[in-house]
Amino acid sequence: MDFSLFYFADDGAAGDGRYRLLLEGAAIADAAGLAAVWTPERHFHRFGGLFPNPAVTAAAVAAVTRRIGIRAGSVVLPLHHPLRLAEEWAVVDNLSGGRAGLSLAAGWNPGDFVLRPGGYEGRRQETIDGIGLLRGLWRGEPFTGRDGAEYRIFPRPVQKEPQLWLTSAGSVETFEAGGQAGVGILTHLLGHPLAALAGKIARYRAAYAGSGRPGRGHVTLMAHTYLDDDLAAAERVAREPLLRYLASSLDLGVAPANRSGGAGIRPGTLSPARARLAVTAACDRYLHHDGLFGSVRDALPAVQAVAAVDVDEIACLIDFGVPTSAALRGITRIADLQAVAA
């Protein structure tokens, strides 16, 4: 099992230096042997609001690391011209010496598409279609513009092929589409419980086997994470920040499903009192079941449960409001967990 860092900060919880945890955390993870650093693309909302452009944050991470993978988790492909996207990430690939990777998302928030009017309805198919186009541009194939001229990206990337994932909130169709396209899957437990994930991964693996690509694919699961001396210490530090973080997402409709697989909270459907109860239940679920909290020993059963459903990598979301110094100390424990789980 590989372990990586995943960032999705609520800007209101940024605290002492908005990007300190990103940059210092990436350097610690790099030295500790973690697999990758993931940064998202978010627009016009404090939830995730530190990250409007993952190519920019990836370039910053490239400057302070030497070996760790540098990945977009995710880039919303329909918001970008593919030529521009390929150009930006070719720069990241050069700055990092060939460590760039992208998970491609269709986007879920209609408000983001103020950047691409008219692009919302066809976003899912455009994302699937964009996989082949990005691969071709990366290899140096031309893009034919409306003027009939051919355009190629510069600088040339270091990697011969782009490392690609497809982001899924839980749709089995997306899992299968990722397999058919021969790319990885990046997912989470906000919209489906772990028990539902095994079958989706099996269908992904089967689809991948028919793609003609080498290997059996790669599944990354994002998990909220804070490791400390023991579970009681972790809860003392993490509970209140996690409650605030989850509450900040409510009006986007991205609060998690319940453990039986019920739908997540929809914006505007709960009274304040019921919303507080729902957020508390979600917080408890992460602290005790679907996240990595407590000591390395406390977290190991959750890792084993994730491994049992055939996940390849756990992307540890660490920037949900825990004080920066504590979150940085927790990264070394994630490296310890990786060693124990190997």
Task: Describe the structure concisely.
With 342 residues, the chain is an alpha/beta fold. 43% of the residues lie in helices and 15% in strands. The chain has helices spanning 20-32, 54-64, 82-95, 123-138, 172-181, 194-209, 231-248, 272-290, 296-308, 324-341; strands at residues 2-6, 36-39, 69-76, 100-105, 143-144, 150-151, 163-167, 184-187, 219-227, 292-294, 313-317.
Tell me about this structure.
The radius of gyration is 19 Å and the shape is globular. It contains 10 helices and 11 strands. The longest helix has 19 residues. Strand 8, helix 6 and strand 9 form a beta-alpha-beta unit. The chain has one domain: TIM Barrel (Alpha-Beta Barrel), CATH 3.20.20. Helix 7 crosses helix 8.
Overall number of domains: 1
Strand neighbour order, sheet with most strands:
1-2-3-4-7-8-9-11
Strand content: 15-25%
Largest sheet: 8 strands, parallel, barrel
Contiguous uncertain segments of 5+ residues: 257-265
Give me the CATH architecture, please.
Alpha-Beta Barrel
Q: CATH fold name, please?
A: TIM Barrel
Produce the secondary structure layout.
Blueprint: E1 2-6, H1 20-32, E2 36-39, H2 54-64, E3 69-76, H3 82-95, E4 100-105, H4 123-138, E5 143-144, E6 150-151, E7 163-167, H5 172-181, E8 184-187, H6 194-209, E9 219-227, H7 231-248, H8 272-290, E10 292-294, H9 296-308, E11 313-317, H10 324-341
Parallel strand pairs: 1-2, 1-11, 2-3, 3-4, 4-7, 7-8, 8-9, 9-10, 9-11
Antiparallel strand pairs: 5-6
